[in-house]
């Protein structure tokens, strides 16, 4: 009898623990008495320049244009857009030229929010289906920096955001929206083998800079690859390879929220529920955006004085957007 009672209590405790760990802070809509401070959009995996022979390049350009026009029309007060890695499908000059032409053609009216670009793994590939090339790391990093800065120089930055340029040979970056740090992480190297698509973040370099920059208040962190074993798809071949060192840093920053990408998991199959496109690294929320190229989806973030609302967004060719109740999370 005691064994049965013990087993029953153990099961109850396990259920309670699972609920506490797995339940988001809130999935309710924000009430009208909360004051919106600012908003921004996050998209990723646009893969501009993907294989021309399959007509995919035209599709990629068109889908990026649709996503940007949807944001421009439906979220006109956004302070910025973040394209969180795999902006291009390979490191060729022609892919960056397509990216430039696509963005500037959408921005003919000069109403597009300012765009921050982040590195993924495809920025180091010669072929979207091949490996990243370790031997040309600095060359491809600096091509990304120079080409995206050229685009940014032609965009209008809101007065409330910073728009300084990355330094040469630097895969990470710090910007501000209002007083909120936006920290962009990117792999310090490309390795061969099973972790070729992973990000490695040097502890004494960019993780130190992250630790020194974001403080204990609200901050947003962006990395294309997700931390290991967090969101769905974040396995040992598709992650931040030194997640343990990132966790050590984030333990000191209780109000950091992280946005990742890379997995291409759609909201229909992996909504913003725990273990899908939402998870945590320690106490830090981790939210993953699907691929614009694959599924025309992204994320919209509303920042209030005491909470943050995150919505998964489906972009449509007629430039309207849809969300679903399980595509929304509110952090208090």
Automatic annotation (TrEMBL):
The keyword Kinase does not apply. It comes from the Bacteria. It is an enzyme of class 3 (hydrolase). InterPro entries: Calcineurin-like_PHP, GpdQ_beta-strand, GpdQ_catalytic, Metallo-depent_PP-like. Residues 42-265 form the Calcineurin-like phosphoesterase domain. Pfam families: Metallophos. Its EC number is 3.1.4.53. The keyword Hydrolase applies. GO terms for molecular function: 3',5'-cyclic-AMP phosphodiesterase activity. This is 3',5'-cyclic adenosine monophosphate phosphodiesterase CpdA. It comes from Clostridium felsineum.
């Amino acid at each position: 009898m005691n064994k049965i009672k013990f087993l029953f209590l153990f099961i109850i405790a396990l259920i309670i623990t699972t609920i506490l760990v797995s339940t988001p802070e809130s999935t309710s809509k924000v009430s009208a008495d909360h004051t919106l401070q600012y908003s921004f959009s996050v998209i990723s995996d646009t893969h501009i320049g993907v294989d021309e022979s399959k007509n995919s390049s035209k599709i990629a350009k068109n889908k990026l244009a649709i996503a940007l026009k949807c944001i421009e029309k439906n979220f006109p007060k956004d302070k910025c857009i973040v394209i969180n890695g795999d902006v291009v499908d390979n490191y060729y000059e022609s892919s960056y030229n397509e990216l430039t032409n696509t963005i500037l053609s959408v921005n003919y009216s000069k109403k597009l929010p300012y765009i921050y670009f982040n590195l993924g793994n495809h920025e180091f590939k010669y072929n979207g289906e091949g490996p990243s090339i370790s031997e040309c790391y600095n060359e491809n990093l600096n091509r990304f920096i120079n080409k995206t800065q050229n685009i940014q120089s032609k965009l209008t930055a809101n007065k409330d955001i910073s728009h300084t340029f990355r330094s040469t040979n630097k895969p990470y970056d710090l910007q501000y929206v209002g007083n909120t740090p936006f920290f962009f992480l990117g792999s310090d190297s490309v390795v061969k083998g099973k972790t070729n698509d992973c990000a490695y973040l040097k502890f004494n370099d960019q993780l130190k800079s992250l630790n020194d920059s974001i403080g204990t208040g609200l901050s947003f962190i962006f990395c294309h690859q997700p931390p290991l074993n967090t969101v769905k798809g974040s396995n040992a071949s598709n992650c931040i390879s030194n997640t343990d060192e990132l966790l050590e840093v984030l333990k000191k920053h209780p109000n950091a929220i992280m946005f990742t990408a890379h997995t291409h998991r759609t909201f229909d199959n992996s909504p913003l529920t725990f273990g899908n496109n939402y998870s945590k690294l320690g106490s830090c929320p981790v939210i993953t955006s699907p691929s614009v190229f694959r599924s025309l989806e992204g994320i919209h973030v509303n920042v209030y004085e005491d909470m943050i609302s995150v919505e998964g967004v489906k972009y449509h060719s007629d430039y309207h957007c849809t969300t679903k109740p399980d595509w929304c999370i509110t952090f208090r």
